[in-house]
Amino acid sequence: MNPENVPPQKTEARPSFVRRHRRKLAALCFWLSLLGGYQLYAWRAGLTPLETARRLVDFMANSAVGELGFVALYTACPLVLFPVGPLAVVAGFVFGPVKGIVLTLLGTTISASFAYLVGRCFGKGLFSSGESTGIAGRYADRMRANGFESVLITRFTFLPFDLINYLAGFLHIGWKPFILASTLGSLPGMVSFVLFGASIEMLGDTPKLDPWTLLAAVVILVGSL
Fold it and tell me: Which residues neighbour 176 within 8 Å (Cβ) at sequence distance 6 or greater?
């Protein structure tokens, strides 16, 4: 048979970007809708982080499931990008220093792991180890190779909590070094926020600060910096 008469073989068309990543795009749209809905609600209701913290105090102080609700709210913080600092202060004020630290540590661990898994899902197939090129790829490989140190430094320097969690998952830093460094690095700041909340005592409608607990919070915060 004349080679010129052989019909060309058909090659399968590569699926489009949308088809290959439709699940991730659907999850991203859901997340953005949730984030946008919360921000719109907070804006229309005039909810500042301080006002939200006040409402949380009322809920947890008067609810039989206040402790469970606190951990659940802490876990949901990455979804709506709510700052975790006010929650730590609320934990100290409502539950006291010891229980407040325990609950905040539990919430921090679960929240960080949740955001890490979300980032890992969206980063799947990107910056694969050993196959990365360019500056971003080399930097990703370096962070994976030094995952514990990389995450620990970001915690000690008080970089955005949720952003680091998402980034660690996106870059596929190992979960064990990530969660260990995240817990150790967040502990000084977390304890100082909880102690600050525990130093607030209410005398009727007038807040009063316990000087020794407040001093301990300041010393720990300054020491961590």
Answer: none
Strand partners, 206: 203
Alpha-carbon distances, residue 125 vs 21, 128, 171 (angstroms): 11, 6, 10
Q: What is the pLDDT of residue 106?
A: 92
Written as one string, the DSSP assignment of 15-43 is PPHHHHTHHHHHHHHHHHHHHHHHHHHHH
Q: How far is Cα 49 from Cα 89, in angstroms, rounded to an integer?
A: 11
DSSP state of 157: T
Q: Residues 131-134: contacts with CB within 8 Å, 24+ apart?
A: none
Counting as low any pLDDT under 50, the low residues of the chain are: none
Distance separating alpha carbons of residues 13 and 213, to the nearest angstrom: 66
Query: And the tokens for 190?
Result: 């977390």
Residue 86's CB is within 10 A of a number of other CB atoms, namely: 20
Contact by Cβ (8 Å): 107, 75: yes
Q: What's the rounded Cα separation, in Å, for the pair 124 and 17?
A: 14
Distance CA 34, CA 167 (A): 20
Considering the entire predicted model, what is its pTM? Answer: 0.69
Reported as type and span, the H/E element at residue 67 is: helix 66-80
Fill in the amino acid letter for 175: W
